[in-house]
Automatic annotation (TrEMBL):
Region ranges (Disordered): 1-23
Parts forming coiled coils: none
Low complexity composition bias: residue spans: 1-14
Gene3D superfamilies: 1.20.1260.10
InterPro entries assigned: Aromatic_CoA_ox/epox, Ferritin-like, Ferritin-like_SF, PaaA, PaaA_PaaC
UniProt name for this protein: 1,2-phenylacetyl-CoA epoxidase subunit PaaA
Superkingdom, taxonomy of origin: Bacteria
Length: 336
C-alpha cells in the first residue's frame, strides 16, 4: 500500500538531514504497513536489507524460471504427439513469461535486468538446484510438472501475500499458470502409468529420480536456514521451509496413490498424532554439492544460458533501436 509510507515519507523528507529521528519515522511507517498486512510499493521507503533480500530472492526466482526452461525444452522435438508437443511448448513459454514478470519486479527495486543476468552468467547469483538434474526420458516431463511445479506452487501460493506489492502481484498470475503446469504433469504421468508395463516403469523411474530433489526445493531445514526468520518478520515469507515441505508431502501422497505410483521413501507414513506424514531423511550432502556447482548439469545449463544470451544480442539491440526510433518519432523530432 503506497499511501501510508508515501505520505509519512514526504513529511519526513522535509526534515532530511535532521538526524536519526527522521529515519525512525520512516521505519515506523514501514513497520506499520507490514504489521497491517498491507503492501510496500516501489516508491515507499524500505530498509536497505529488505530491498537487498527481495532483490536476491526475486532474482533467484527469475533465474530459476528461465534456466528451468532447458530441461523440458530438451523434449519438445521428441514429444510423442502433436498434442503433447503443443502443451509442452506452451508450458516452456510460460516459464519465460514468469522470468519476465520477475525481472520486471526486481527492476522496481532499482536493479536492472542486465545486472541480474550478468550475475547469473558469472555464477554470482543462483537458481534453483532442481534444474541441475537431467531429463532422461519423456516421463521426466511429467515428473517435473507434477513434482517440481507442484513444489513451486506450494512455495509460491503464500508469496501472493508477500509484503512487497509488485512481487505479490506477479505471483498471483504465476501461480495460476503453475497450477496448469502441475496438472499437465499429473495427466502425463497418469497416461504413462496406465499404459504398457514399460511406460509404467518409465513413469515410476522418473518419480524415483525427481522425488528427493523436489523435497530439497524447499531449502535447508529450518535450523540451518540463514534468511528465514528475518524474511518471515518482514512478511516476505509466510511459512518455514520445513512447514512447506511437510505440506507438499501431504499433498503428494494421495496423488501418488491415484497415479498408481510409489514414492521412493520406505519411511513415509501417516502420523496420526501430528496429522501429517512422516518421511525419511533428506540427503543434504547431495543438496549442498549440487548448490556448489557439482550437480550433473550445472555446467551445461549455464553454458547454454550464456550462449543463448550472446546469440540473442542482436534481438535486444534491434528492439532497443526500434524503441528509441519510435520514441523520437512520437515527439515529432524526426520525420518519417
Ligand atoms: Fe514458472
Ligand atoms: Fe511452471
Amino acid at each position: 500500500m503506497a499511501t501510508a509510507v508515501g505520505s509519512v515519507g514526504a513529511d519526513a523528507g522535509d526534515s532530511v538531514g535532521g538526524g536519526a529521528g527522521s529515519s525512525t519515522e520512516y521505519e515506523r511507517a514501514f513497520d506499520a504497513v507490514v504489521a497491517a498486512d498491507e503492501r510496500i510499493e516501489p516508491r515507499d521507503w524500505m530498509p536497505d536489507a529488505y530491498r537487498a533480500t527481495l532483490v536476491r530472492q526475486i532474482a533467484q526466482h527469475a533465474h530459476s524460471e528461465i534456466i528451468g526452461m532447458q530441461p523440458e525444452a530438451n523434449w519438445i522435438t521428441r514429444a510423442p504427439s502433436l498434442r503433447r508437443k503443443a502443451i509442452l511448448m506452451a508450458k516452456v513459454q510460460d516459464e519465460a513469461g514468469h522470468g519476465l514478470y520477475l525481472y520486471s519486479a526486481a527492476e522496481t527495486l532499482g536493479t536492472g535486468r542486465d545486472e541480474l543476468l550478468d550475475k547469473l552468467h558469472s555464477g554470482r547469483q543462483k537458481y534453483s538446484s532442481i534444474f541441475n538434474y537431467p531429463t532422461l526420458t519423456w516421463a521426466d516431463v511429467g515428473a517435473i510438472g507434477w513434482l517440481v511445479d507442484g513444489a513451486a506452487i506450494t512455495n509460491q501460493v503464500p508469496l501472493c501475500r508477500c509484503s512487497y506489492g509488485p512481487y505479490a502481484r506477479a505471483m498471483v498470475r504465476i501461480c495460476k499458470e503453475e497450477s496448469f503446469h502441475q496438472r499437465q504433469g499429473y495427466e502425463l504421468l497418469l497416461a504413462l502409468s496406465r499404459g504398457t508395463p514399460e511406460q509404467h516403469a518409465m513413469a515410476q523411474d522418473a518419480v524415483d529420480r525427481w522425488w528427493w530433489p523436489s523435497l530439497m526445493m524447499f531449502g535447508p531445514p529450518d535450523g540451518e536456514s540463514q534468511h528465514s526468520a528475518q524474511s518471515m518478520a518482514w512478511k516476505i515469507k509466510r511459512h518455514s521451509n520445513d512447514e512447506l515441505r511437510r505440506r507438499f508431502v501431504d499433498i503428494c501422497v494421495p496423488q501418488a496413490e491415484s497415479l498408481g505410483l510409489t514414492l521412493p521413501d520406505p519411511d513415509l507414513r501417516w502420523n496420526e498424532e501430528q496429522g501429517h506424514h512422516d518421511f525419511g531423511p533428506i540427503d543434504w550432502t547431495e543438496f549442498r554439492d549440487v548448490l556448489k556447482g557439482n550437480g550433473p548439469c550445472n555446467e551445461e545449463r549455464l553454458t547454454r544460458r550464456r550462449h543463448a544470451h550472446e546469440e540473442g544480442a542482436w534481438v535486444r539491440e534491434s528492439a532497443a533501436a526500434y524503441a528509441a526510433k519510435h520514441t523520437t518519432g512520437e515527439t515529432g523530432a524526426i520525420r518519417p
